[in-house]
Amino acid sequence: MANSSFTGTGTSLANYALLASPTFTGTPAAPTAAADTNTTQLATTAYVIGQAYAKLASPTFTGTPTLPTGTIATTQAVDNNTTAVATTAFVLAQSASQADIETGTSTTEFVSAGRAQFHQSSAKAWAKLGVSGDVTLGYNVPSCADGGAGITTVTIGTDFSTANWACVVGGLGSGTTVTTAKAISCSSQAAGTMVLSAYDFSATPVLEDPNNFFFAGFGDFA
Hints:
four-stranded antiparallel β-sheet; 222 residues; 3 helices; rod-shaped; mainly beta
């Protein structure tokens, strides 16, 4: 009959591992399985390293790495211009604010579609207007009002920051002679409204409707 206290040649069995649920000490070694082995064979440290898995801390990827949707990573500081992984939070933080776009000096921030109009080079409002109080087409011009012969009052949707903005005007006349040409002017300019007037080029100029008014406004939004 087997006896667990049998010492054999005098060496205690306590120095040997059990076959079932052994507890090793020291630095046990085992044969290293081939890469991608998927069995119950012991995995040595050499096997794990040979699988070429990335470390959790500061891994360096090669090839063309992909990440599952929703992968969480450390967000880098704004303007980090390295090969570090960019999280969604990092990307959104690179979006230029209204003030950044108005300043127009950053070369690292991107401009989102909803903020492009804040740049100084962009028209904040523009339109082609009829003479009967109709906006034929335009941007940030919800309405205009017929003020009589040669006059229309324009309403800006989102106001300028002040009344000090540049108004570029023009018009489409109804003929080619001097008397049917039109001189267009802008007056009563406020942050959210202004008046367009059209005069003919006769010896005694009079207000006269063009076929259409045109204008574009440049400046700062509030």
